[in-house]
Write a structure and sequence with these properties.
alpha+beta; RHH_dom; about 15% strand
Length: about 80
């Protein structure tokens, strides 16, 4: 892995049949890829699920922020499970 201090990289994803782009730092892209592999789903499907959860929030963050928050919450859940 390269330095965690890298500017965001924009990538396209497809959610509910439409394409959008998300800008995430490479560290978060790596974490998202790993999470999708762990759950045996494509990255697009995982991002779509995060998007549904995000939209249901009282004050929904942007999609990139929601992905980062979801990944951190996942890490915290794993740490508490140990």
């Amino acid at each position: 892995m390269s330095s965690p201090y890298h500017p965001p990289v924009k990538r396209s994803v497809e959610i509910a049949g439409h394409k959008t782009s998300i800008s995430l730092e490479p560290l978060f892209w790596d974490m998202l890829r790993s999470a999708a592999e762990d759950e045996s789903v494509p990255i697009n499907a995982l991002v779509a699920r995060i998007d549904v959860e995000r939209i249901q929030a009282d004050t929904p963050p942007g999609l990139a922020s929601a992905v980062r928050l979801w990944l951190v919450a996942r890490l915290q859940g794993a740490a508490h499970a140990e």
